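Posted in: Structural Biology > Protein-Ligand Complexes

Title: Requesting predicted complex, 1,3-dihydroxyacetonephosphate in pocket

I'd be grateful if someone could produce the 3D structure tokens for the following input. Sequence and ligand are given below.
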Amino acid sequence: MTRRQPPDYISEIKRMKAKKNAIILAHYYQTGDIQDIADFVGDSLALSQKASSNSADIILFAGVKFMAETAKILAPGKKVLLPDMNAGCSLADSCKAEDFVEFIKNNPGRTIVTYVNTTAEIKALSDIVCTSSNAVQIINSLPKEERIIFAPDRNLGNYVINKTGRDIVVWNGTCHVHEEFSLEGILKLKNENPEAKIIVHPECELPVRMIADFIGSTSSLLNFTKKDNGKCYIVATEPGIIHQMKKENPDKKYIPAPPKDSTCGCSECNFMKLITMEKIYKCLKDETPEIFVEKNILTDAQKPIKRMMEISKKLGL
Ligand code: 13P
Ligand code: SF4
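-- Reply #1 --
Done. Output follows.
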């Protein structure tokens, strides 16, 4: 008896994409092989922009749930698939709708700005959404006298206060990946590689941000390594981004920043890494799991996301 060969996932995925008029959108924190089969790879802002302007019938999201939900909110007529519904986000989880309603009540009269790393329910409660690519510009676009609530990331929130000097109360949420970078570990690496530049995502804690040569969203970090004349970088964000950095500049050296817990050794986002090639294949074949957002929530969540996208477009972001 001959044993059945496992399917060749990559060629099957390519075949099904063409047959079903589907596209794969992947975040930079996906594994390199998944980034390479995607039709588009980007940061949260670019992925939202792509989700709202494409001619596919199906969007398969290689990322986490809040990203796929944002795609569904922006393209409600399309089928949006997420290969693993457990691909959540510790930051989005840190802000539950019922607690946020209470927070808003306790801080009345403030404009509600939320980072895209939230559930659709939180977006529906917001005046405007932002991503790490445009948080400073979005806040600066609001009238000077407006007082603001920023949620859910306290590190990004404090970074934005520092950059804008605005009156902002910040929700006390964090990302378990960015919160965990070790200041001592990064300084040790810098000592061993004195020529290295330290590049940091704004979700990192203040001590790590303070030693950064450059702070920015995933795409800004990538652009920095592309244009900068340095040769070596200590990268304080999820190491999936290094795949693109290496593709752009293979001769440069990229060192992932270490986490505080040295037993685990790497700073991968366990949620992002739930997406595998096999799950993408099965998801595209069976067209499940599919993302659904309740109609009222979808309508209310659309406004603050679209407002962000209009401002971003005006500012050329
Ligand atoms: P970016 O918007 O910079 O891609 O960040 C997304 C994210 O989840 C950071 O942890
Ligand atoms: Fe969420 Fe952090 Fe993972 Fe980004 S890295 S998806 S913020 S848990």
